[in-house]
Amino acid sequence: MVRDQESIERDIERARDALAVTLDQLGTKASPKRLADSAKTSVRATWSEPKVKYPVIGAGVLIGALLLRKLLR
């Protein structure tokens, strides 16, 4: 079955449009600003959890106390 030139050109144009949309979506997903904002939000959510927050605070206090002890000796 032989297709006419106009139908082939329409198919090519549709494929180009679909490819342009796909590339735009990939560009949006891979945006460095978007990735940085996503990472920042994830870190903030993790740090706000009590099971992470309090042990880190405790470790900081312990390290601070050990440093003060060493400096005052």
Question: Structural class of the helices, strands and pairings?
Answer: mainly alpha
Main pleated sheet: none
Instruction: Return the domain count.
Output: 2
Give the C-alpha Rg: 28 Å
Task: Report the end-to-end length measured between terminal Cα atoms.
Answer: 93 Å
The averaged pLDDT comes out at: 91
* Count of helical stretches: 3
Q: What percent strand? A: under 5%
Give the low-pLDDT segments. none
Find the count of extended strands (DSSP E, 2+ residues). Answer: 0
Q: SSE order, as H and E?
A: HHH
Shape: rod-shaped
Task: Report helical residue fraction.
Answer: over 70%
Q: Could you characterize what this model shows?
A:
This protein is mainly α and 73 residues long. It has helices at residues 5-29, 32-47, 50-72. The protein folds into two domains: 1-30; 32-73. The relative contact order is 0.05. This is DUF3618 domain-containing protein.
